[in-house]
Amino acid sequence: MTLDLPKTGRFALRTATLPAAVTPGSALPAREGLSSADLIVADGRIEAILPAGAAPADIESVDLQRRMVWPCFADMHTHIDKGHIWDRQPNPTGDFDGALAAVRADREANWTARDVEMRMDFSLRCAYAHGTSLLRTHLDSLAPQHRISFEVFADMRERWKDRIALQAAALFPIDAIDDDAYFSDLVEVVVANGGLLGGVTFPLPDLDRRLDILFRTAADNGLDIDLHVDETQDANVLTLLAIAEAKLRNGFEGAVTVGHCCSLARQDDDKAKATIDKVREAGLSVVSLPMCNMYLQDRHPGRTPRSRGVTLLHELRAAGVPVAVSSDNTRDPFYAYGDLDMVEVFREAVRIAHLDHPLDDAAKVVTSLPADILQVPEVGRIAEGLGADLVIFNARSWSEFLSRPQADRIVMRNGMGIDRRLPDYSELDPLTKG
C-alpha cells in the first residue's frame, strides 16, 4: 500500500473505517461494527474523531478511501525468552512432552545473557514492526535462569520503553514452590524487577496448599499473578477451578490471569458452567492461545486431531469473564511458526474459535481487552486525547481484512509512520551455528 502520511504536526486522516468497539466515547453510527470517520491528529495524539467529511478543509490531510484504522495491539501472553530456537532445537514429535524436553535441553546448554538478549531483541523488533505497543512475556525461571533472564528483561524493558511497554511473569512448575530457598530467591528477583508471579499448575494431591502459598506470597509482596493452566486435553484435569477457589479463599485483591485452560472445553456442560461461574466470581481473566494450542493439542502420529485445543471463549465471555487471545510461543519447540504478528493471531482466532457472525466486537480481543487485563487502559483503543498509535490497513471491510495477511499495513506511533522492515533471520545465525 502506497500512502504518504502528512509530515506536519497537525493533520487529518480522512474517510477512515474504524472498528466501533475500540473507539470508546464515539457517537458515530456503525454498520457491522464499523464506523466511517475523519481523525484529527495533533502533536502525536488524537485531537478529534469526526464524522467522515467533517474535518476542516484548511489542514493538511490524506484521504484513506475507507481503509481500516485500528489502534496498536496488546500481546498479553508471549515467551520472548524462548523465541527463535527452533533451528537449533526442534521438536520432532510436535507434542507437549517433546516441547518440554527440547526447551529444557536448549535452556541448559545455551541460554546465556547474550543469547537471551539477542533473541528477545529480534522478537521485539518483529512485534513492533507488526504494530504491537504492549507485550507481556513469561520467563522460564528455574534456577539459575531466573536471575539471567530477568536481568536481561529489565534492560530490554528500559531500551524499548518508548516503543513497546513490557511486562514479565516468572514461569516455574508449581511444585517448585516447596523449595524455600529457591522460591524466596525467585520472589526477590521478581520484586526487584517489577514482574509478576506466574507458574504452571497441574494436579497434585496438595495443590491447594501450594496455591495458598502462591497467593499469600503475591499479596505480601504486592504482586499480580499470571498462570499457565490446564494445557491438556485430559478432561480430568481442571486446576482452573482450584485457582478460582484459592483466590476467593485467600481474599486476594490483585489481578489474576489464567492462560490456556484447554481442558475446560472437554468438560460436560454442567461441570464447565460451574467452573466458569466460579472463575467469574473470583474475577479471573482468561487468555487463549489458539495457534499454539492447535499445534500442540491432540497430536498423535498418523491421526487427524479431533479437538481444536482452545478454551470456551464464547461461554466465558457470555458469563462476563474478560477474555483475550495472544501469540504465545514463536519459532520454538512449543510452536514451530509465528512472528508475534497480532493480525495473524486475530485472523486465526476468528477462524478457530468462530469469533465471527457478527464481528462487531471481535477487534477487542487483541486490543482493548488485553490492555485492560494488563492494566494499561490507554493502549488498544482510539479516543480523543490518546496517542496516535495506529495501524492502517488496505482493507475496507471485515471480509477484505480477514482475507489477506495485511502485510502492507502502515504502523503509526505518536502520529508518525515507523520503519516496518522486519529483521532478517540471518541475524540469528551466530546463535544457531555456535
TrEMBL record:
Annotated protein name in UniProt: Cytosine deaminase
Residues covered by the Amidohydrolase domain: 209-407
Organism from which the protein derives: Roseibium algicola
Superkingdom of the source species: Bacteria
Pfam family, one: Amidohydro_3
